[in-house]
Amino acid sequence: MAPKGSQRTVNKIVAENRKARYNYEILDTYEAGLVLTGTEVKALREGKANIAESYASDEGNEIWLINSHLPEYLQANRFNHEPRRRRKLLLSKREINRLRVGINREGMTLVPLKIYFNEKGRAKLELALAKGKKLHDKRETEKERDWNRQKSRLLKSN
After folding, report:
1. Is 57 within 8 Å of 108 (Cβ atoms)?
2. Domain of 86: which CATH number?
3. Burial letters for 11-48: b for 16+ Cβ neighbours within 10 Å, e otherwise?
């Protein structure tokens, strides 16, 4: 345990899926724990994870994170982990049932938004229940973003 005077990294973001908010309309977010091995946690602490192409799926009574990339920890030798293995997500039964209803009935997807360490130093995943955007919705998002940039430039120059 850390001494009282030491600083801990609180909510340190390790990996972020920045394209998710552009490609999907985020309807609801959940905080999920990750089942990781020791070398995966050490690789996460180095901050080299990638969740850009990953997604979550419902299999049985569990939710799994698929296609996330945690690079091998260099000092681990033969005890290393597989970089693209499937990782189990820790959610309550009620949350899993809500997610399952969203996926099956309403045709939504589970998109990971970011991996971070919470106050206790545990790796957490922010998972979103999202609906895919159509092309015209993406264009509207771009227009809004450009307008906000122009607006801030105009206000800054005055």
Report:
1. no
2. 2.40.280.10
3. eeebbbbeebeeebeeeeebebebebbebbbbbbbeee
Fill in the amino acid letter for 152.
Answer: S
pLDDT digits (tens, 9 = 90+) for 103-146: 888 878 899 999 999 898 898 999 999 888 888 888 888 899 89
Count of structural domains within the chain: 1
pLDDT > 70 in the chain, percent: 93
Is residue 72 in some structural domain?
A: yes
The structure tokens 């015209």 sit at 136
Q: Could you give the CA distance from residue 117 to residue 81 in angstroms, rounded to a whole number?
A: 20
The residue segments making up the domain with residue 98 are 13-133
51 belongs to a structural domain: yes
